[in-house]
Structure to design on (231 residues):
């Protein structure tokens, strides 16, 4: 069974840093990207970035570049989301998801077919 | 940056057809996915590559995409379909979500 299991809820103070993990199992970890999505309280989904587990190369949304680092360790089939200099506005649920890697006629057709359970991050002084 | 626009809310009576739109510049040139999210749960893929359904998704979920608009259609809507729905596409190697539509089944 394909599973993505994320690390547990975190409570942090402003200015601190945080790393969330996402462990994949039940599939070939390097055949899919891992993406990260933020959902602030009562708000919609925001695509943060993706990582290719074969080389741990990350691609970021302009909205998050410079504030987050996405990486992966294929030896332990785990991806990571690092958040630095946390602010109260980083309070959110963060999801990882598995992304297929498909291009059809030169058009990106990747889709997110399995999701982690989400990690609640609370930033408060 | 690329924007996807969805109506904030759509209401439908049980058994009727719900239509949720997603608009973006030349969206028909891209592939669109749709996700369902119920309160307290992770999103779930319900449509990919504009119109394909993952295994386990009922046939009453269908999708289309042309011009500047993608459409998620839910036929014979049931109470269990009440949820938030998000469209998603790719632009310049970056994923983009629509703002989400709250579907209410009255």
């Amino acid at each position: 069974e394909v599973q993505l299991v994320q690390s547990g809820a975190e409570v942090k103070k402003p200015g601190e840093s945080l790393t969330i993990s996402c462990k994949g199992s039940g599939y070939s970890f390097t055949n899919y990207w891992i993406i990260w999505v933020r959902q602030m309280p009562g708000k919609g989904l925001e695509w943060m970035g993706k990582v290719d587990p074969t080389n741990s190369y990350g691609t970021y949304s302009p909205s998050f570049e410079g504030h987050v680092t996405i990486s992966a360790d294929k030896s332990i089939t785990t991806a990571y989301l690092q958040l630095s200099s946390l602010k109260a506005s980083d309070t959110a649920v963060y999801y990882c998801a598995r992304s297929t890697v498909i291009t059809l006629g030169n058009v990106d057709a990747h889709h997110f077919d399995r999701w982690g359970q989400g990690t609640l991050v609370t930033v408060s002084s | 940056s690329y924007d996807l626009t969805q109506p904030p809310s759509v209401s439908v009576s049980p058994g009727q057809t719900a239509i949720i739109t997603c608009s973006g510049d030349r969206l028909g040139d891209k592939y669109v996915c749709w996700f369902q999210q119920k309160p307290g749960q992770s999103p779930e893929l319900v449509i990919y590559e504009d119109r394909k359904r993952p295994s386990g998704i009922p046939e009453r979920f269908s999708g289309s995409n042309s011009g500047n608009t993608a459409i998620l259609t839910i036929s014979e809507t049931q109470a269990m379909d009440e949820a938030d729905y998000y469209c998603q596409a790719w632009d310049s190697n970056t994923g983009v979500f629509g703002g989400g539509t709250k579907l209410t089944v009255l």
